[in-house]
Amino acid sequence: MARPVQEINAGSMADIAFLLLIFFLVTTTMDVDSGITRKLSAIPPEDQPKPPDVKERNVYIVLINQHNQLAVEGELMSINKLCDGVKEFIKNPHDNKNLSEKKEPEEIQFLGMVARSKGVVSLQNDKGTSYHKYIEVQNELVRAFNELRNELSMKTFGMAFKDLANDKQASIKKAYPMTISEAEPRNIGGKK
User: Fold this and answer.
1) DSSP letters spanning 52-121
2) Which letter does DSSP use for residue 161 in this model?
3) Is the pLDDT confidence value at 81 over 90?
């Protein structure tokens, strides 16, 4: 006569599976995308006066079309020349009439030295621009301003911008504010 097969008690299996699930949830780390750190301006009140007009020579126009081509001031440019182009435009070391104007010395009394730029970088992209290209251009623009700040910090205080005290960093930021204007994506290439 055959013996009956013993049943395995599976009552505690659910408890073990639940404990393993909790263990893996607690010990697993999740990568969180931080995105682009940009502070958007608040909606201006209706009674606020109109901002002053910016002269055309003080605007450095950077366009990215639907084919991810970069055009700066109407001319095609490779991405690896963008940072130097922005720095040249903002600094305007030779007072070129086609580059940005400099602020009057009394406008920058906080440093009491060389006049700084009135230049604004205007970034415009097509609705068909890839996210990768947009971020690549953003990174180059930010890099240009960071390099300008670091150069001024080294010249003025003899140390890197990131190593300065907060008050000195603030003065360098006033000299080279991150003046990047972004327009809403549009159909630059003409497609609708």
Assistant:
1) PPPPGGGEEEEEE-TT--EEETTEE--GGGHHHHHHHHHH-TT--TTSPPBPPGGGGTTTTSS--B--EE
2) G
3) yes
